[in-house]
DNA sequence: CTAATTCCTCTAGTGGCTAGAGGTTCAAGG
DNA sequence: CCTTGAACCTCTAGCCACTAGAGGAATTAG
């Protein structure tokens, strides 16, 4: 049996966040002591680790919930889990691509007018002028 | 003179968002018609484009505001603008790196147990098991 | 002059937490 | 057994950057 603080330490999820997940229905309501404090079992620890990991991967809570409901899934439900993973991968690749385009632009801006400080800074100009960008975003 | 809708069309910033920026002090309060409707000039359009662009680049509104206050800056203030750009570039590169690590993991998960559907799906297992990850995140 | 469109203000909701107030329970040391 | 201090409890409010909707007024095209 773990206290909420122990659960927090073992998963890296902050205490208020654990309560927040319970509120949202992602974690089941745990047992309570006579003094109304939460006590968790191994299953809760595993479940929270799952949530933590999928959140780290960038999945929104709604998807985490969907995956959790597929525990011990079979047949079509398995396909659904794959589907979620595939969609997330797609989203992630899009995000990476977009950020990389922004990176090259920001790199250009950050080095603008280094050395020669004219009376109007090129950095400020560059932030304002989308026309200068190499690609769309 | 532009209506708020025209400003929206020309910048791609939604109408409620424009009012939101005004509320936050990022845009000055524009003139009003006799009937209390906002009318914007060229300067407002430029300013909103600047905000839009810097937001697209991922800068938080606080940084956008800081840059806006540096309009026509000189000396140390110019360095401050550079500093903001440099810090953002650094942040962006970190974000990209992290997402790329996640990408490889998610790719692994998405293809897990493709073909052979055992009684416990590897996708669900993979989402739960951080130990399987190649690197930290 | 009418009808459609756009505008106004205001409130509340989103996601995913995080912080704080004000009070209670627990575990260890004396 | 009693005290102390850490950890716990609930509840409310705040964060960021918007977004949506209600209910009503102004503008514009025909």
Automatic annotation (TrEMBL), chains A, B:
Domain called HTH merR-type: residue spans: 1-70
Cross-referenced InterPro entries: DNA-bd_dom_put_sf, MerR-type_HTH_dom, MerR_fam
SMART domains in UniProt: HTH_MERR
GO MF term set: DNA binding; DNA-binding transcription factor activity
Protein name: DNA-binding transcriptional regulator, MerR family
Keywords, ordered alphabetically: Coiled coil, DNA-binding, Repressor, Transcription, Transcription regulation
Parts forming coiled coils: 75-102
């Amino acid at each position: 049996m773990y206290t909420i603080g122990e659960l927090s330490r073992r998963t890296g999820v902050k205490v208020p966040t654990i309560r927040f997940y319970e509120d949202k229905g992602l974690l089941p309501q745990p047992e309570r002591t006579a003094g109304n404090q939460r006590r968790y079992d191994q299953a809760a620890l595993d479940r929270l680790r799952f949530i933590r990991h999928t959140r780290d991967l960038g999945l929104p809570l709604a998807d985490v919930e969907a995956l959790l409901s597929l525990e011990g899934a079979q047949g079509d439900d398995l396909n659904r889990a794959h589907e979620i993973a595939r969609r997330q991968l797609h989203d992630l690749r899009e995000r990476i691509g977009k950020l990389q385009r922004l990176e090259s632009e920001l790199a250009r801006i950050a080095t603008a007018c280094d050395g020669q400080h004219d009376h109007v800074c090129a950095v400020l100009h560059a932030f304002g002028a989308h026309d200068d960008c190499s690609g769309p975003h």
